[in-house]
Amino acid sequence: MLLTFAYPSKCTGAYELTCDEHDLPFSLRGVERFSYQWPWGLGMSTRTKNFKLYLRPKCYTHGEKRRKSLMSLAVERSAAGEEMRMLLFCTFLVLLASCGIWVKAMHEKAS
Fold first, then answer.
1. Which of 52, 56, 79, 110 shows a CA-CA span of 20 to 30 A to 73?
2. What span, in angstroms and rounded, lies between the C-alpha atoms of 106 and 77?
């Protein structure tokens, strides 16, 4: 690229942060302008870069929330995932106790 010989002389940018209804950041839009001074007084070059970054996790698609399944929430490494694992474990214990009570009742009924 020819701009490797040029010297950056001025860099400016304008940024806009978009928030959702809960004032959480949703996206960042920006315009950056770079001006380069060519050696030996050969003039200036200007480059412009426009971009938009979505600041949400990949489970969000451009502002629309996707529903998470129980299993995806259970394996998530967060406080919500830890609570979901605890709820599933407690549910399993209740089911196991219910099966034990039912088997004991059937055994006593048979004898």
1. 52
2. 42
